[in-house]
Every structure is written in structure tokens, then in C-alpha cells.
């Protein structure tokens, strides 16, 4: 089977809900990163076999195949196709797996993979009336959570919101409120330190947001907070259950952002004299009960370890998406991970979680970490996914 290498990995800075990227359409956001790829290519862009983009919403401006829209807007040749996939939060990590599989099997040699989400601009949706006098229409905010639930599923088990599933994981692994607040605090500390060191400079593309009366350059994640303290976090009230431990402070925020990677076969890389960042070496996905969806990475990583005859201690750096501190801590406990290897530059609680774009974001961060630090010989990226799934991808340094 052919080997797969990442030769480019970039992202926008991550905007907060209603923040600096709020005026930007998600297709424009995605096309911006694709345009940077196009502008920096040393080969004919028509050689790109496909563009695979993950997006979790797809109910508004991201409708009708976001990937193809972004290709057209970016100025890439119209001969370059595009497809959009949806595995909710794991969408863009799944885009990487899709590309990895295509290159392995020989049906592609050069692919753009990535993801984008604008949670700010997610629309309200209204069901259609079944007849002229129907009063049963339902309206939902598509930004986050369940909508148009199948009654059959409601009879199977309680359908918890994401925060409630985090409470379930906290109870399952006996994770305290203090542990969650400390984890959230550490995420902010690491992210702020990484920005001060310049660790994100090479991965973030400054975005010039142009409005009718003004324009500004957006080049730094909005959510990391230098003023966060454990004391302040400990004073926040539980959001999802009266006697719970999950708060706004130890959960990831809602965000806007995009990221993309250029992945190629070894043969293509050598033929076009491209420089590899890291190699994609393995992947796995797995389902779990929806009400403990946060444990998905545990099962996905276990499958990956068995499939490729690996041990969790083989990985020197692990990007574990922080949907919630409780969920991340549950996975650390469940997989017996070394916390010092997890989210070296902070995670989604501080940096942000633009749903369908988050998988590409964490791999972009990991790729740049591994490129700069050759002591990181192997890396792992993993995420939980709503409705009960986990996803994991492994990498090797070059």
C-alpha cells in the first residue's frame, strides 16, 4: 500500500461565537485556506485529485457541498472536485482518514483535506407544515445539539445533550469538579504560553476581514484567557444539572474557524520535490452509547492500537479534543495516558472547538509540533463525537 504524507497544514485563528469571524461566511473562510494552498503550490493545481472537507452543520451557508463551493471561490481549477462529509465533531478528522485510505489504495495521489464551521452563522430551521392547518411545526437553532429527533430513538433511551453526556462521563470515571477546573485552567495556561512562544505563528493564516466601513486583521485565537484562575472557574455554576460539575468554564466554547492540509503519496511527493511534515500511519473509528459519547476516543484508540500493533506509550504527543474537561479526563483515565503528553499547546477549552473544523485544527497543531520537535517521533489525534462515536488517527515524524 502507498504511504501518505502531510506536506502543508494551516488554519485560521479560531473566533469566538459572535466574534472576529462572525461576519465571514463559512465558504469564504474555507476558500481562504484553500487559496493559500493554491498560491504556494510548486506544481500544477489541476493535479489535485479531490478536496475533502468536513462540516457538522450544513444547514445554512455551508449547504450544497461546502467543499465544492470553497474550491470554486478559491480560484483552484474547476477541474478540481470537492466533497463534503459529516461525522459531526469528527468530520475533518474523518476527511483525513478518507484521504489516507484513498492514497493507500491508489485511487488518489494528491488531496486537500480539512474542515470548517461557523457556529455563529448557523441558521434557525423550521419544519414544513404537513397540511394547511398544521400547528406542529418545530423550529431549531442549528448551532448545536439535537434537532428533528426521531421518536423511535427517543423511546430507546434518554437523549442527553452534550453537557449531560459529560456529566455521565464524570460520574463514570469519578472525576471531581476540582479536577475539571484544574484541567480547564491548564488548557488556557498552555495555550497562552504557546502563543507567547510563537508556537502557533507558522500554522495560523492571518485573515483580513473586510466590512463595509472597516476592515481588520484576525490572526490570534480569541478564546484563550490569560486572566483565567482556578478560583474564578470554581465559582461558576453547573450548567446542565443542578448538582453537576460541568460548567461553561470547564467546557469548550462555540467557535468559528477553518483548517486544511495537503496530503500526498510518497511517489507524488518525490516527483514534485515536496517536503514532508509528518506521515499518516493509521486510523480507526468506533461507536459507543450516545449518552457516554465522550468515551468514544477510548474505544477508537483501542481499535487503532490493536490494528497496528501499537501501545499507547508509543505516542510522544497526543492531541485529544477537549469537548469538555470531564470527557478529556475520562479518556486520559480510560486509556491510561500520560497527561504530560496531552495537548502540549492547550486544547479546545482554551483554543476553541469549531465542530467540523476541529479535527483538521488539532492535526495542524500536531503536525507543526512534530515538525519543530523531532523528539516527537509518533503522534496521535483523537476526538469524541456526538451520538456516540470516537475517531483516532496516528502519525510518524519524518
Structural description of this entry:
There is one protein chain. The protein has 398 residues and is an alpha/beta fold. The chain has a domain of 265 residues: Peroxisomal Thiolase, Chain A, domain 1, CATH 3.40.47. Strands 1, 2, 3, 4, 5, 8, 11, 12, 13, 14 and 15 form an eleven-stranded mixed β-sheet that branches. Helix 1 crosses helix 2, helix 3 crosses helix 12 and helix 9 runs parallel beside helix 10. The relative contact order is 0.21.
In brief, what are we looking at here?
The protein is α/β, with parallel strands linked by helices and 398 residues long.
Distance between the termini: 18 Å
Average pLDDT level:
97
Proportion of β residues?
Answer: 15-25%
Total strands: 15
Overall geometry comes to globular
- Any idea of the CATH topology of the domain at 4-122 and 252-397? Peroxisomal Thiolase, Chain A, domain 1
Q: Can you name the CATH architecture of the domain at 4-122 and 252-397?
A: 3-Layer(aba) Sandwich
CATH class of the domain at 4-122 and 252-397: Alpha Beta
Alpha carbon gyration radius: 20 Å
Q: Give a short account of the largest sheet.
A: 11 strands, mixed
Helix content: 25-40%
Name the helix and strand elements from N-terminus to C-terminus, one letter apiece.
Answer: EEHEHEHEEEHHHEEEHEHEHEHHHEE
Alpha plus pi helix count: 12
Low-confidence stretches: none
Class by alpha and beta content: alpha/beta
- The CATH homologous superfamily of the domain at 4-122 and 252-397 is called Thiolase/Chalcone synthase
Amino acid at each position: 500500500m502507498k504511504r501518505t504524507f502531510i506536506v502543508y497544514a494551516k488554519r485560521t485563528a479560531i473566533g469566538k461565537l459572535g466574534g472576529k469571524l462572525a461576519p465571514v461566511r463559512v465558504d469564504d473562510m474555507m476558500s481562504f485556506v484553500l487559496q493559500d494552498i493554491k498560491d504556494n503550490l510548486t506544481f500544477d493545481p489541476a493535479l489535485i485529485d479531490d478536496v475533502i472537507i468536513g462540516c457538522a452543520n450544513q444547514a445554512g451557508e455551508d449547504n450544497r457541498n461546502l467543499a465544492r463551493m470553497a474550491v470554486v471561490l478559491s480560484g483552484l481549477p474547476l477541474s478540481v472536485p470537492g466533497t463534503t462529509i459529516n461525522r459531526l465533531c469528527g468530520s475533518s478528522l474523518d476527511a483525513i482518514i478518507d484521504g489516507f485510505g484513498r492514497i493507500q489504495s491508489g485511487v488518489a495521489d494528491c488531496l486537500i483535506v480539512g474542515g470548517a464551521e461557523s457556529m455563529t452563522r448557523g441558521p434557525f430551521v423550521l419544519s414544513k407544515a404537513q397540511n394547511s392547518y398544521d400547528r406542529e411545526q418545530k423550529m431549531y437553532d442549528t448551532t448545536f445539539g439535537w434537532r428533528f429527533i426521531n421518536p423511535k430513538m427517543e423511546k430507546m433511551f434518554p437523549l442527553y445533550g452534550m453537557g449531560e453526556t459529560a456529566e455521565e462521563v464524570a460520574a463514570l470515571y469519578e472525576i471531581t469538579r476540582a479536577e475539571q477546573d484544574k484541567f480547564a485552567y491548564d488548557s488556557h495556561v498552555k495555550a497562552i504560553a504557546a502563543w507567547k512562544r510563537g508556537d502557533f505563528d507558522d500554522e495560523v493564516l492571518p485573515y483580513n476581514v473586510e466590512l463595509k466601513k472597516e476592515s481588520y486583521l484576525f490572526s490570534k485565537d480569541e478564546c484563550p484567557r490569560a486572566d483565567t484562575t482556578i478560583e474564578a472557574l470554581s465559582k461558576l455554576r453547573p450548567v446542565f444539572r443542578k448538582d453537576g460539575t460541568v460548567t461553561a468554564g470547564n467546557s469548550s466554547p462555540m467557535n468559528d474557524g477553518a483548517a486544511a492540509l495537503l496530503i500526498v503519496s510518497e511517489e507524488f511527493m518525490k516527483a514534485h520535490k515536496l517536503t514532508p511534515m509528518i506521515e499518516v500511519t493509521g486510523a480507526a473509528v468506533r461507536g459507543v452509547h450516545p449518552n457516554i459519547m465522550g468515551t468514544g476516543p477510548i474505544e477508537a484508540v483501542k481499535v487503532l492500537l490493536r490494528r497496528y500493533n501499537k501501545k499507547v506509550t508509543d505516542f510522544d504527543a497526543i492531541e485529544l479534543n477537549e469537548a469538555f474537561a470531564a470527557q478529556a479526563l475520562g479518556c486520559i483515565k480510560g486509556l491510561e495516558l500520560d497527561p504530560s503528553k496531552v495537548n502540549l499547546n492547550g486544547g479546545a477549552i482554551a483554543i476553541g472547538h469549531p465542530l467540523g473544523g476541529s479535527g483538521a485544527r488539532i492535526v495542524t497543531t500536531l503536525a507543526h509540533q512534530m515538525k519543530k520537535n523531532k523528539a516527537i517521533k509518533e503522534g496521535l489525534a483523537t476526538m469524541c463525537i456526538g451520538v456516540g462515536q470516537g475517531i483516532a488517527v496516528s502519525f510518524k515524524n519524518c
